[in-house]
Amino acid sequence: MLHFRLNYAIDMRYGVLLEIAKAVFEQRPLDLGMGHVNVIWQGDANEMAIRCLALCSTPPRVLNVTGPETISVRWLAGQFAARFGVEPVFVNQEQETALLSNAAKAHQLLGYPRVSLGQMIDWTAEWVAAGGKTIDKPTHFQERKGEF
Prior knowledge:
By secondary structure, this protein is α/β, with parallel strands linked by helices. It has 5 helices and 8 strands, in the order ββαβββαββαβαα. The model has no long low-confidence stretch (mean pLDDT about 95).
């Protein structure tokens, strides 16, 4: 067995980057309460999950799976704002804590994700600007009380 702890996988139709990009594009207020996130491309997460079958053990190994960066939500909003030619609108301030994972062990065992953060930002910005379809399911990444 292996405990595969994943956060926050994204694709064009779903995820933290999409939510931030849409808020910036639509010039809706973006809550900074959860000031930092980790993200990984869903395809990279899927590939790592399959490769983890060879890492199963007893007792189970615990593996955090996400991208290597701890990313500022404010910085992400700025990246999207620059691509859209708008100013981001923020509410609240970054808190001292955030739901983050250290995926160093996963990267040591499986390598770094193939899709970079920069590429995910570019793809997401292009998708949002083109009016790409979404799953319309929020991640609740900003939730700090465990109430979804």
